[in-house]
Amino acid sequence: MAESDETSTKLKSEISGEVMKETEADISRYFENASRTIFDEIVSPKKQDFFEVQGGSVSRIPDFELMTNRSSGNERPDHSAMNDMHKDIWIPSEQTRKVLRSIATSTTGSNSLDRDNLTMPGLAIQGDMPDLIKSTAIHFLGEDENIHRNVLTASDVTQDERGLRNLIQAGCYKAAINLSGRLLAVYAQGYGKINQPSKHTPHSLQLWFTRLALLTKLRQVDVLENESKPFGNLDKPDMYFTFYPELYGTRPGSMASFSFRLLLAEIPLYCKKPKQALDNLFKVLATVNQIIANFNAGLCGDGSRIKVNAAEQRDALRLWKGRKLRVLISVANCAVSTKNYVLAIDILEKLCEFPDWTAEELDALKSSIGRLRLFLGDVSAAEKLLITQKKQDSGLSVRELMNRGLMAVAQNAFQDAYTCFKAAATMDPSNVVLTNNMAVCLLYTGQLKAAVHLYESAITKNPVKSLQEPILLNICSAYELHTIHCEQPKLHLLSQLNRYKGDAVDIQCLKLAM
């Protein structure tokens, strides 16, 4: 997505991947969909990006949310029929292949591997992550405010993957991180265990995937970097089933899910190493292309001559072509976050050439290209992509109205933009992004009081959905512009957070003097 150069324009990161089970499933549905827009942090006098201020995060093109969910959902077109061998396949490096071949041809237990061939993760923090919303509410509002805090902790749920899902669904991401630490300790991978040998299973790696995804979501960059580093690119021999013949026999493939592999490739971006992230993603893409080529040649995905019947080949190709789309979308998002819009547009235009998109999905892709054209200041090219049909306003979809609003913003026609966003909000009244855009249009047309009222009304109507960091940051900035006596309304927001939200919101967005 792209908008005018005047505004800071990073979009909230969304994590896709798998919950605690061996079959791949999208955990992004557990995370709030609060994609950032061109207006987020627009009222900041320094024009800094909110996520850069708070510790860094990757941009996302919101129109791709549909795409990533679609490709993820289609990864296993028939779970009962899809051979796990094709789902788990990966091509190891030559060094790793030699080690695995040695294990396969040796007597069980006769191999003694040096530490360089082992993946040795562990927790980087001791104890539980604190609930800062709770402690801040008590600090400013007193102990009595704690009566209204009804939030799950790691001890309130079953100590297993079901409890982990419950915490994620409740928006208690810190509690979920705390529980993941307890569960990983069972695998001798708890605090102080980095660089200590331990055994891995698909379940332990799913725990790690979920933990690192949550750390990414909360922008806990230091912990994320330290805890992800031992996994490297998931190519150590002990990441493959054949490393454990006593458990899995001759079963080929990687124990780590594809979504975990993709997340690890992207993590350097969150740690302000975008070039490394792009290099990682292109390496993943190269392997995916090789797997697709192998299947097309009638081979197994890793190049071995295991017989693959026509039905399996068709399903495997569908799976891996979907994964290729996911990697390309990650590359495009990475390019956007580094302001390499030319690369992002090139990737998106190639994606448009893929068959089987629905009309809605193709429109979403073209909208994303159009918004990137706005980033580059190419308004005429953007208009061709964003406003393709001359319909009456009453016949426009929410996306088309949003696009028209963005075009108006690019031309500094904020009143026209407000009209477009308001029409879209009438069709989708729970869309907080539209509410936010309308409020900032009001700010740009000098209607500060109306903007504050719009924010407050949205929070009153739907506090659970509206109390999100970009909205809170903008309304607090608006309060500061509106009056010097802004602490009291901020404390009211703190009280609302304490009552309605989990532990994931960064309390700094309230801009309270601690």
What's the gyration radius in Å? 24 Å
The total count of helices amounts to 23
Query: End-to-end span in angstroms?
Result: 35 Å
Shape: globular
* Beta strand count: 0
The main β sheet shows up as: none
Q: Mean of the pLDDT scores?
A: 81
Category from helices, strands and their pairing: mainly alpha
Strand percentage? under 5%
| Helix content class | 40-55%
Plain-language structure description:
The protein has 514 residues and is an all-alpha fold. Helix content is 54%, strand content 0%. It contains 23 helices and no strands. The protein has helices at 50-54, 64-73, 84-88, 94-104, 132-141, 161-169, 173-185, 202-217, 221-228, 245-248, 258-270, 274-296, 310-337, 341-352, 359-375, 379-386, 398-410, 414-427, 432-444, 448-461, 463-466, 469-482, 487-500. Helix 11 packs parallel to helix 13 (310-337) and helix 19 packs antiparallel against helix 20 (448-461). The chain is globular and about 75 Å long.
Describe the protein's topology.
Blueprint: H1 50-54, H2 64-73, H3 84-88, H4 94-104, H5 132-141, H6 161-169, H7 173-185, H8 202-217, H9 221-228, H10 245-248, H11 258-270, H12 274-296, H13 310-337, H14 341-352, H15 359-375, H16 379-386, H17 398-410, H18 414-427, H19 432-444, H20 448-461, H21 463-466, H22 469-482, H23 487-500
